[in-house]
Design goal:
The protein is α+β, with helices and mostly antiparallel strands. The chain is built from twelve helices and nine strands. It is 42% helix and 14% strand. The two termini are 34 Å apart.
């Protein structure tokens, strides 16, 4: 589901033409379009000509009207992207510019390189149809494990190279997981989940069973899923969407990667793609790449389900408020998310040690 159109296209083109022209008089903006993807950040595709040559760039605008998250961390996200672009070998789209002045587009925005490639679709689910479903089974497996490889590359980065102070929520003496959980738990009203029994039960369980910090916390991508990777064939050529980035345990990302895939199959009643690697295969592969056993994965899967239920509640409310769906429409996004969270919590708490890592 895309962020709804928030601005006049002709006026936007005029403003961006002026903005780019001030930076380079050789630059002429020829078109501005809005892609059909993205929950929380408005994205614009800008085509321009510079000294006679065509060029395409991507602009991501800080959320204002359509806010999925209650906090403003856009400047932090920009700085993380800047550091990753300059100081790591991760394939993040090159950061061209950052405009903190909201007078141009109504909010701060960043400018990044356009990256050619294909992205697995959430809507409709790649388990249901699309280019991923059309791949031969061996290619599908390579695609999935290439995403797992990217997780490991992120988690093996030295923390100092990504500016830990930018993302750490603070709280001396508290674990990284507790700080991460508190960020969401303190905003249940904003997300629209304050009275949700399943969400409250999950939160109580998460607070009671905090696994601590068995390894030094590092960079967590946040929205770590195959749908946030651009692929050339089965090779990732860009890692997208760092708005949920944090400092924490690597298992946070692995659990989200598994959980969001589960949501796009079991969560919406769609069979998984044949030959698609399962949880056990993924876990074993990731452990080899990370170089250590995964710990407390069941806990982090519940944590993933808890956060996803908050996000879907907020998106559902926005969809109704912005008339993206007619009033009274059965909009199953949040209902499905809560049902999957309830199953995940039941599975995790039913096993000895309350851990589904094995």
């Amino acid at each position: 589901m895309a962020v709804p159109q928030q601005r006049d296209p002709a006026r936007t083109l005029e403003r961006l033409a002026s903005w780019f022209g001030e930076r380079d008089p050789r630059c002429t903006v020829t078109s501005v379009s809005v892609p059909g993807s993205g929950f929380s950040t408005e994205t614009l595709i800008v085509d321009l000509r510079r000294a006679g040559a065509g060029e395409r760039l991507v602009i991501r605008v800080a959320p204002t009207v359509h806010r999925v998250y209650p906090w403003d961390r856009f400047a932090e996200q920009v700085e993380v992207l800047r550091v990753l672009d300059k100081e790591s070998d991760l394939p993040v789209p090159g950061l061209r510019d950052y405009e903190p002045d909201p007078s141009v587009l109504g909010a701060p925005f960043l400018v990044q390189d356009w990256v050619d490639g294909r992205v697995p679709s959430d809507y409709p689910s790649y388990h249901r149809q699309g280019w991923v479903a059309e791949l031969p089974e061996p290619a599908r497996r390579r695609l999935w494990f290439a995403g797992v490889d990217m997780l490991a590359r992120i988690h093996l980065l030295p923390l100092g190279s990504v500016g830990a102070g930018l993302l750490d929520a603070g709280g001396a003496g508290r674990t990284s997981t507790a700080r991460h959980l508190d960020r969401y738990a303190g905003q249940l009203g904003f997300f629209g989940c304050a009275d949700d029994e399943v969400v409250s039960t999950a939160l109580d369980w998460l607070r009671t069973h905090d696994p601590g910090d068995p390894v030094e916390p590092g960079l967590v991508w946040g929205d770590a899923r195959i749908g946030n990777l651009i692929f050339d064939g089965t090779t990732p050529v860009a890692v997208l969407d760092w708005e949920m980035a944090a400092i924490g345990q690597p298992e946070v990302d692995l659990a989200w990667y598994l959980y969001l895939d589960r949501n796009l199959s079991e969560g919406i009643g769609v069979p998984r793609l044949t030959g698609w690697p399962d949880r056990a295969e993924t876990l074993a592969y990731y452990e080899r790449r990370l170089g250590r056993p995964v710990r407390d994965l069941g806990y982090y899967e519940v944590f993933a389900g808890f956060r996803f239920a908050l996000v879907t509640a907020r998106v559902t409310r926005l969809a109704v408020d912005r008339r993206m769906v007619p009033p009274g429409t059965d909009f199953p996004l949040h209902r499905n998310a809560v049902a999957l969270l309830a199953r995940t919590l039941a599975e995790t708490t039913a096993l000895p040690g309350q851990d589904r890592a094995r």
